[in-house]
Amino acid sequence: MRIFVTGGAGYIGSVCVEELLKCGHEVLVFDNMEEGHQRAVVSPATLTVGDINNFEQVNAAVSGFKPEAVIHFAGKALVGESMTNPYVYYQTNVMGGTNLLEAAVRVGCKKFVFSSSCATYGLPEKMPMDERIPQRPINPYGHSKLIFEQVLKWYEQVHGVTFTALRYFNAAGASKVNGEDRKIETHLIPNVLDVALGKKDHMSIFGNEYNTPDGTCIRDYVHVIDLADAHIKALDRASSGFYNLGSGDGYSVLQVIETARKITGHAIPAKMMPPRPGDPPRLVASANKVKMDMGWKPRFNKLSTIIETAWEWRKAHPNGYNS
Ligand code: UFG
User: Fold this and answer.
1) Are residues 132 and 235 in the same domain?
2) Which residue, judged by its Cα, is nearest atom 18 of ligand 1?
3) Which end of the chain has fewer CB within 10 Å, C or N?
4) Which residues line ligand 1 (CB under 6 A)?
5) How many angstroms separate the alpha carbon of residue 187 from the centre of ligand 1?
6) Same domain for 96 and 134?
7) CA–CA dist 310, 305 (Å, integer)
8) Closest residue (by CA) to atom 33 of ligand 1?
């Protein structure tokens, strides 16, 4: 298939492009390069630099390529940042996404795969989280993703779009080629590994008085190659749906740091800090629906494997893609 991939020069998008190419798809990456890297776009995928917030730009790229499917990774994705700057979250995640959807529909492309988030649920009443629990986001990031899910439903009704919205839990790990390299790194695992590399002198743990066994937040870490795999399976779907994408296992911040200590052989000193605004205490997926409907199963579901792959990439790229 001819596939238009927004955000395909970024972390999750670039790994998905690798997997799409392995399956023989033709790929055009559309990325504003704010967090993207040219080197992350593997050949023979082509890169068009442009912004989904600019309808003319995205419309020209989509109408030139005439894709059979769109995979939409581009977006703002930091919980903490959304609590201080909500505007860019609604602008990019809602309006930018709608620009892309409209451009796709205008060239008759009605297959759409969207990177949604478990942040659309807010504070879940039930653990593990299935798709039926109420969506009540507690930060603008989660809210902006939820609004775009609703936009997709309306485009399904009005224009006959078939969509798959994948609600990611915590993407982590790396492929052999691509990994995490952001301008400002706020994520747990790359920060822990930067301490092990000697680039930072300690880890900050944001809160240890949550209602969890060790007091630190629990997340469901899912390997980026497994995430990519779900997008490829979604291309075959004939009906629309919302799916949680997590491994089903939760690990606390302290467990992640402890595992990284074993893998890296570094002491990784850590300091307790106040909680980060907008952080839910515990997010763990029930991945039953995606397993049943799509036959998706994580291949790299051990936390140690996830951290090992991230560590291999980080050691090979101590200064990210400029290494
Ligand atoms: N954390 C620390 N210290 C750090 C960084 C993070 O203690 O230096 C803690 C956070 O407070 C949180 C946990 O580690 O409790 C995970 O934090 P991340 O920043 O790695 O990830 P988030 O869970 O905040 O968010 C990520 C993505 C979102 C996505 C969400 C789904 O950034 O886009 O996972 O859970 F929606």
Assistant:
1) yes
2) 187
3) C
4) 77-79, 117-119, 169-170, 186-188, 191, 204-206, 217, 219, 253, 276, 279, 283
5) 5
6) yes
7) 9
8) 77
- What per-residue confidence (pLDDT) applies to 197? 97
Whether residue 229 is predicted with pLDDT greater than 90 in this model: the reply is yes
Considering the domain architecture, whether residues 96 and 79 belong to the same structural domain is answered as yes
Residue 208 included in any domain: yes
Q: In terms of C-beta density within 10 A (0-12 exposed, 13-18 middle, 19 or more buried), how is residue 247 classed? A: buried
Q: Which atom of ligand 1 is nearest to the CA of 191?
A: 8
| Mean pLDDT across 288-299 | 96
Mean pLDDT of 198-210: 97
pLDDT of residue 307: 98
State the average pLDDT for the chain.
97
Confidence (pLDDT) at 277: 86
Q: Does residue 17 sit in the same domain as residue 48?
A: yes
Domain-located, residue 274 = yes
The answer to the question of residue 293 being in a domain is no
Chain CA centroid to CA 142, Å: 12
Atom of ligand 1 nearest to the CA of 203: 8
CATH number at residue 305: 3.90.25.10
Domains in the chain, number: 2
pLDDT tens profile 15-48: 999 999 999 999 999 999 999 999 999 999 999 9
Catalytic residue, chosen from 11, 141, 210, 221, is: 141
Comparing CA positions, the residue from 267, 244, 254, 175 lying closest to residue 213 is 254
Establish if 292 belongs to a structural domain: no
DSSP state letter for 208: S
Protein residue closest via CA to atom 11 of ligand 1: 206
Residue 14: domain span:
2-171+222-245
Which ligand 1 atom is nearest residue 276's CA? 11
CA 301 to chain centre: 16
Neighbours of 32 (CB within 10 A): 20
Per-residue confidence (pLDDT) for residue 16, from 0 to 100: 98
Contacts of 43 (CB under 8 A, 6+ apart): none
Is 141 part of the annotated catalytic residue set?
A: yes
CATH code (residue 10): 3.40.50.720
0.90 cut: is pTM over it?
yes
Q: Using 50, 70 and 90 to split pLDDT, how confident is the model at 125?
A: confident
